[in-house]
Amino acid sequence: MFLRKFxxxxxxxxxxxxxxxxxxxxxxxxxxxxxxxxxxxxxxEGPVTEVxxxxxxxxxxxxYIDWLNSTWKPTMEATKKAGxxxxxxxxxxxxxxxxxxxxxxxxxxxxxxxLDKSVEEEAVAKKVIGSTEVQNKARVARTEYRKxxxxxxxxxxxxx
Length: 160
Known about the structure:
The chain is an alpha+beta fold and 160 residues long. It contains 5 helices and 4 strands; from the N terminus they run ααβαββααβ. The mean pLDDT is 87.
């Protein structure tokens, strides 16, 4: 109004100014829509894998593989059949030093909530392996030639 009063804007220029202002407002609002779209996660949370880092002493590798085949694998298969896990895997590594793992044991769960099924997992293990006492004796025996260096959980991110 000030500009029109003093003769700076004529009627045609006023329409043009309004058009420019409206265009700028529309451009600004479209930028804010893009900003909101970028606020959304660009990934979905996927399955969770428990990774156990195992070091098997020199000369006992085949003995440990025998245990994996005779006890661990049947337990994992039964746990998978019960729907408590998605999958499991065994990896062999070439460690850089004697204190690093040479085996990774992977157990993949559908999500974090699936980790709360330890009672059900114990029931499956009792059916396959035997009582908790039997399992504990076997664990103690395995400590003579293998050491669990640690365990961590990793989560897959599914990119959109």
